[in-house]
TrEMBL record:
Family annotation (Pfam families): FKS1_dom1 (PF14288)
Positions of the 1,3-beta-glucan synthase component FKS1-like domain: 343-428
SMART domains: FKS1_dom1
InterPro entries in the record: FKS1-like_dom1
Entries under PANTHER family matching the protein: CALLOSE SYNTHASE 10 (PTHR12741:SF67), LYST-INTERACTING PROTEIN LIP5 DOPAMINE RESPONSIVE PROTEIN DRG-1 (PTHR12741)
GO cellular component, one term: plasma membrane
Protein name, per record: 1,3-beta-glucan synthase component FKS1-like domain-containing protein
Gene Ontology MF terms in the entry: glucosyltransferase activity
Transmembrane segments: none
Length: 431
């Protein structure tokens, strides 16, 4: 019977892997082994199921029981996301994964695994794995990367560090989920303390657990080398805060493990939402880096963004606003391109992206976006001339906090809906 189960598992893995190779078109990239490479897109977009299953494959030889725990957690996540298996390929994926789990549940002697001790076993394995793979050395390399922006390890060592961090990240995520039901006076307390320590002091793992789209700006990442590209480092440096800018309050909290930048001032002054700020910070960095790439790759030691790249981004992003002003025959918020320095240009570009990112359906009215930007840019210009940063009067709510969404976007949305008699999102279908 054991041989039959082994053959069935190999058959399921081979079938799922072949399907992944046929549909994904990943070229020469590494194809995740086994069932890890067959996660349907509808499940993989919003979860780390694929990463958890890859970790399960990687540690199968070290501890099959922990591998089974990770697979069960992946199945639970898939079931919660799509309980009726309506998504494309979800039913086949669940069937294959359940088959693998059932095989793992059977010991060689036919006995059953004690699943009540899963969280304890996972915690013990996590501790052993950290010690065996020298997490302290990885932390030192990560700190050196954060300070110098270059890798000292060779490519092979970097790949191993990347693999170790990915497995630790998967273990931490599963522990966090299972730890909620653990004994609060036993292993549950230990896991809670470990997670708290990771988020507060362990920059390596906390950085890897910080969400990002393409560039890990909130914390350095050993598993994503894009942050050390000279053009990206130059773009990050270009938006960094300087002593010439207004001073932020001492109690203003900076998210992540990064330096203060222009977006922090815009968040404080206009009350943009934090997720919008994170997304647009990354957007601006990539936009600047791409513009610089088209000119030349900056020197790696001290990368600087060319003035030509800044002007290109500035004119491209604000092109519609410039045309709007010309059409209405009103003055731009700047006198001439030469009259404003690169910092002001980047502030205006960042402000425009933040307005657009939080404008909801108002962004379907480009003239309205230009109007909002025109007046907020004037406010920003006055604020930048002061030594202390103060909230913009246009975005201060009655209760005191600053909110661009509440004070600027919502009134426009409600006015248009009231005038038309229809919800604004319905009107946008006809714009």
């Amino acid at each position: 019977m054991a041989r039959a189960y082994d053959n069935w598992e190999r058959l399921v893995r081979a079938t799922l892997q072949r399907e992944q190779l046929r549909t994904s078109g990943q070229g020469h990239e590494r194809i995740p082994s086994g069932i890890a490479g067959a996660v349907p897109p509808s499940l993989d977009k919003t979860t780390n199921i694929d990463a958890i299953l890859q970790a399960a494959d990687a540690i199968q030889a070290e501890d099959a029981n922990v591998s089974r725990i990770l697979c069960e957690q992946a199945y639970s996540m898939a079931q919660n996301l799509d309980p009726t298996s309506d998504g494309r390929g979800v039913l086949q994926f669940k069937t294959g994964l359940m088959s693998v789990i059932k095989q793992k549940l059977l010991k060689r002697d036919g006995g059953q695994i004690d699943r009540d001790r899963d969280i304890e076993h996972l915690w013990e394995f996590y501790q052993r794995y950290k010690r065996r793979h020298h997490l302290e050395d990885i932390q030192r390399e990560e700190q050196r990367l954060h300070e110098s922006g270059t890798f000292s390890a060779n490519f092979g060592e970097y790949i191993e560090m990347k693999k170790t961090i990915a497995i630790l990240r998967a273990l931490v995520e599963v522990m966090e989920s299972l730890g909620k039901d653990a004994d609060p006076h036993g292993v549950g307390r230990q896991i809670t303390e470990e997670l708290r320590g990771i988020k507060s002091t362990d920059t390596t793992l906390s950085g890897e657990l910080t969400a990002y789209n393409i560039v890990p700006l909130e914390a350095p990442s050993l598993t994503n080398a894009i942050g050390v590209f000279p053009e990206v480092r130059g773009a990050i440096s270009a938006i960094r805060y300087t002593e010439q800018f207004p001073r932020l309050p001492a109690n203003f909290e900076i998210s992540g493990q990064r330096d203060v930048d222009m977006f922090d001032l815009l968040e404080f002054v206009f009350g943009f939402q934090k997720d919008n700020v994170r997304n647009q910070r990354e957007n601006v960095v990539l936009t600047i880096a791409n513009a610089q790439c088209r000119l030349a790759i900056p020197v790696e030691a001290d990368p600087k963004i060319d003035e030509k790249a800044i002007n290109e981004v500035f004119l491209k992003v604000l092109d519609n606003y410039i045309k709007w002003c010309k059409y209405l025959r009103i003055r731009l918020v700047w006198n001439s391109l030469e009259a404003i320095n690169r910092d002001r240009k980047l502030f205006l570009v960042s402000l425009y992206f933040l307005i657009w990112g939080e404008a909801a359906n108002v962004r379907f009215l480009p003239e309205c976006i230009c109007y909002i930007f025109h007046h907020m840019a004037k406010e920003l210009d006055a604020i930048l001339d002061h030594g202390e940063a103060n909230p913009a009067a246009s975005c201060v709510t009655e209760n005191g906090p600053v909110s661009f969404l509440e004070q600027i976007v919502c009134p426009i949305y409600e006015t248009l809906a009231a005038v038309s008699g229809y919800p604004f999102h319905f009107l946008c279908l006809y714009i």
